[in-house]
Structures are given as structure tokens and as C-alpha cells.
Amino acid sequence: MIDAIGEEIDAILDPLLSRQFVRKGKTLFVKLGGEDIELANGFKMYLQTKLINPHYKPETAAQCTIVNFIVTESGLEDQLLAMVVRVEKPELEATKERLTEQQQQYVIELTQLEADLLHKLVSADSDTILQNVELIEQLEQTKLTSQEITQAQIIAKTTEAEINISRETYRRVAAEGATLYFLLIQLWIVEHMYQYSLEAFTVFFFKAIDKTEQFEDDEARVLALRQMIRIVIYSWVSRGLFERHKAIFLAQLTFRLMQKGILEVEYTPQEMSFLVNCPISTVVANPLKKWLPDKAWYSVQKLIEIEGYEQFSNHLSKETPKRFEDWYNDLAPEQKTLPLEWRSLDQKPFKKMLIVRCLRPDRVTTALLEFIRVTLPSGSDFVDCDSKYSSVEVLQQAYMDSSPNIPIFFILSAGANPVKDVETLCL
Fold first, then answer.
1. pTM for the whole thing?
2. Cβ within 8 Å of residue 182, ≥6 positions away
3. Residue 33 pLDDT
4. pLDDT per residue over 58-91, tens digit each?
5. Which carries the bigger pLDDT value, residue 172 or residue 109?
6. Is residue 29 helix, strand or coil?
């Protein structure tokens, strides 16, 4: 077993990977580093990588059997569900595990009984089989045992089904954790430094559970757990992100919750695609060149292809261009009411963002953060995360999350010097 390999495999292993074996007598040898090394009978080599999305050469893929053990979102959700129930309802999870073990034992016993009976039937003398009292008694005993096990299996399955219904109460908590984990492990696409292990994630996942207020009602407890897990994981991750990347992660989190229906926001996939990509159409010339950039006008021409925005171009250029110009020239247009019937979009901030995306793309980030502030439960805690704390207070909270085995790393930029804050923390 060779652990933690990279995308480049050491050339010294090529003879093993390509199976360049030489037989001498009854023994196989392989040349490694200029020496003939004897191969043990049944020798197998396993290579393991911790890379999330490794890319290997085609010949490597041809020489090896590649097995992907990376957890899936649904698989992680089931794992987290068992962990959460073990903490919240330990007796429930213990019963679940005991029943699972019993079910496996029942299957083993039935298989063994059938195998023993078959062996005796085959070994018995066919001429005296009907007079073989021992065999007949064994047959009857096997039949009775089989019936008892079958009945026990039915009871166990009924009990397990009842337990599963109770466990499902906490599935939303597990789903929240799985969603967050699969969001943060994709952050390496933004910056290769952003790498997070499942082990580290699990530590903060259970810290959030410990911090959550206790409720007698399971439903209230689940909602509180989900919210606490969300803010604890976000705070942990955001402290390790560059400032320019925090809004990206927060937007991904919000959009993912919208996609799962956890946040009730009226939108369509076409609108989401437009917000992210903002395509353009240059077919119609810009009649408002005096104050509106061509790119903004061309974006509007694609916006009107979305249901509900068909008349926007006409209203912008012909109906009330002066009022739109005033809106456009405002320092914070995302906070101002749009002219005409578009004023109703104040009640639909996501849809209003599409117009901001077209006309004032420089204000999209501000509009997006404001949208998150009012849409995400306790949205201000996410948008203003750590901004209300001094650098010493942030360091204090990071210190509370550390341990002798979990150090704190400082990523320094020009002019940054955390030594004073560290000294203050030590006083």
C-alpha cells in the first residue's frame, strides 16, 4: 500500500505497473532500481491518493484498476444522519444497529441450516432415507427454526421501519451538512489553496450541534440545528478565504439552498443562468447611446427573451427613458424603485437583480449581498460575518476552534503583521 500519491507516479514503479515480471524456476522476479526483487505469491499493490479530482495518464489508467472511493452527497447524508441520531437519540441508533446485526445473523443462520440439511440429504442412503429417524428429526427441527427466524425477521423489519421514521426527522440536518461539504470542497476551483478534509468538516459539524440550544420539540430542535450548522461552517470557511472570494461562497450557499427549495424564492433556471452569465445580443442598435453603454443595451436585448421581461426594452427606450436614466445615474440604483410597472420588482429582489445586472453591473455584488441579507435566515450574520469584530476578537474565536492538533495558519499579504494581535491574545 502506497499512500497519498500525486498525479505523477514515480518511474521506479513502472515495472510493477506494467507487470514486467521474469520467471526463474517457480519464482517471479521484477526489476526495481536495478535489482531483481522476488515477488511473493498473491502479491498485490494498492496506490491511494487524497486528491479530490486527480488526472492520470491514459497508460496509468490502462495499467491499473481505478476505484473511486470519494463519498457522494447522498452517501455522506446517510453517514451524517447516523452520526446525528447517535448524538441526539443514542438509544434509537443503538436499537437500529442492533437490529441490523440481528438481520445479518438471521441470514447467516438460515444459510447454515440449509447447507447442513442439504449435506445430510446428499450423504444419506437413498434406500433407508425414509427410516432415517435422525434425518427426519433434523428436517423438522430445521423447518421449525426457519419459521422462527422468518417470524423474527418480520418483527425486526417492522421495528426497523418504525425507527427509520423517527430517524428521518433529522435527515434535514444531515442534508444540510452534506450540502455544505460539497459546496466547500469545490472552492479549490476558485483558489487551489482552498482544500478541506471530511475529518475537519466533521469536527465543526459536531461543534455546531454542541452549540445549538436544546428544545423539547424535535421540529424546533431540527430547525435550530440546521441554522447553527450553516453559520458555524460558513464562519469557519470564510475566515480562511480571501475577501474577494467570500461573496462567491455565500452566493453559492444561497443559490444551492434555493435550488433545494429550502429558501422559497421565485425564480427560474433561465433567470439564474442569465444572472450568472449575462449574455448579450447585438441585433438591435442602441438608441440610448447618450447615457447607456452598448453592452448594457445588448444585455437588455437578451433579457427580454425571458418570460416577464418582454416589454422592458420598449419601456426603457420609448416609454420613460428619462426616468430610467435617473435611476441609472443613482449612486445606489439597486435601492431605488424602478419606473412604471417594474416598481413591483421591489417585492421580488432576485428578479430585480437581473435588471441591475444589465444596466449597472458594477452594483451587482452589492445587490446580491442585500438579497442574501433579506432572503437567507439571519442573513445579516452571514453578510456581516466577523466584520463587527476586531482582529483580536476574530483571532480569539479562531483560537477557540484550534487545539494542540489543529494549528492556526496566517496567510500574510504585504503590510500585514498579526504578531501584535497574537501577543495581545496571549496576555
1. 0.75
2. 73, 76
3. 80
4. 888 888 888 877 778 899 999 999 899 888 888 8
5. 172
6. strand
- Beta carbons within 8 Å of 369's beta carbon, 6+ residues apart: 247, 250, 383
Return the closest-CA partner of residue 385 out of 265, 237, 279, 274.
237
**Three-state SS for 326?**
helix
CA 29 to chain centre: 46
Mean per-residue pLDDT of the chain: 87
CB-based contact 201:147 (threshold 8 Å): no
SS3 labels along 77-129:
HHHHHHHHHHHHCHHHHHHHHHHHHHHHHHHHHHHHHHHHHHHHHHHCCCCCH
DSSP conformational letter for 39: P
Lowest mean pLDDT among 216-220, 224-228, 403-407: 403-407
Residue closest to 82 by CA, chosen among 92, 73, 72? 92
Nearest-angstrom CA–CA distance, 279 and 293: 15
Sign of CA dihedral 248, 251, 257, 259: negative
Q: What are the angstrom distances between the C-alpha of 321 and each of 290, 312, 314, 338, 341?
A: 11, 11, 9, 12, 14
Q: For residue 304, give the C-alpha cell.
A: 427580454
Contact 242, 191 (CB under 8 A): yes
Cα separation, 281 vs 78, in Å, equals: 46
Pull the grid cell for residue 290.
Answer: 447618450
CA distance readout (Å), 172 to 180, 230, 256, 262, 272: 12, 12, 14, 10, 25
152 pLDDT tier (thresholds 50, 70, 90): confident
Higher pLDDT, 291 or 389: 291
The grid coordinates listed for 262 are: 429550502
H/E element, 182? helix 171-184
Residue in the block written with cell 422559497: 264
Q: Which helix (H) or strand (E) segment is 27 a member of?
A: strand 27-32
CA distance linking residue 221 with residue 214, whole number of Å: 7
Residue 142: count other Cβ atoms within 10 Å of its Cβ: 16
Residue ranges of domains in the chain, CATH in brackets: 11-63 (no CATH), 72-264 (1.10.8.1220), 269-383 (no CATH), 391-426 (no CATH)
- What's the grid cell of residue 165? 421514521
